[in-house]
Amino acid sequence: MLAVVYDAFGETPELRSIATPTPSARGVVVRVEATGLCRSDWHGWSGHDSDIRLPHVPGHELVGRIAAVGAEVERFAVGDRVTTPFVCACGRCPECIAGDGQVCRNQTQPGFTHEGSYAEFVALHDADVNLITVPDDLDAGAAALLGCRFATSYRALVHRAHVVRGEHVVVFGCGGVGRSAVMIAAALGAHVVAVDIDAGARAAALAAGAVAAVDPRAETDLVARLRELTDGGAHVTIEALGLASTTDAALRTLRRRGRHVQIGLFAADPVVPLGVVIAGELDVFGSHGMPAADYPELLDLVASGALRPESIIERRIPLAEAPAALVALPESPGVTLIEVS
């Protein structure tokens, strides 16, 4: 099969022919239809993930049809159109039994623990607990983006922060994950303020449902401005960049008893203003994907028309253009979808 492969961290990947994977006993092999270009893939390529072994194929947001099935798979068959969370659970550990497969102690992650979806085929493990059936009429881009950024944002807002209609939500960073958080929060009836240095990202956040979009460089006191826009402080803040400065600002923007959810990944652990957390009795959560069992409620939101994940896709490129696109990702605004087949 053709796949995007890098042999060293930070070096430009290349498109080459490698062996097509075979399914594990409880796994499947999926013919990839489309896969998202995600900042997490860039972090992996940059050498920020200790699970990656070289040479490596990135990619973890995907949709496709099952091409081969392991002998112990019971719920899925060749030809089924599916997606998967980027964290694939084992289904057997205490976390999985409790319904928390997104933090499975034995988790596998396509594009991190093994070869990913920047390829014609990808292997997915423990299929019966990880695959989600995707309707044939759902846009490939919408289906692929559900696997990471939309599921992560949905869990952050609904299952972690428990956002309710009328609350003030501030989203820091309006790339793919941040923009999906804006869309979901707006669909939930929240008043959303977006923060980003890029004018295009701010415009996209407004189009996605934000009531205001702030350029932090234009503010002499960013926190004061955000508190003004949120009637004294946000109920919920989302940080989708992975920068210490924006996490600090997000915590200081919260009203007392507010909730912060950290989505952005850090290259190194930041210093966090715990004094602010203590004084305001703030809740600080992480959001690390969503278990497959919780996807139906997200798909229902998409089916209702209240959420259109495909609307944030700005570029659709072939697999041959993926190596250069991965390298250039930090300088490329908007969301890119890689169309494979």
UniProtKB/TrEMBL annotation:
Q: Which cofactor does it need?
A: Zn(2+)
Enoyl reductase (ER) domain location is: 10-329
What is the superkingdom listed in this entry's lineage? Answer: Bacteria
Family membership = Belongs to the zinc-containing alcohol dehydrogenase family.
Zinc as a keyword of this entry, yes or no, is: yes
Matching entries from SUPFAM superfamilies are given as:
GroES-like, NAD(P)-binding Rossmann-fold domains
List the protein's name. Answer: Alcohol dehydrogenase
Q: Record keywords: Hydrolase included?
A: no
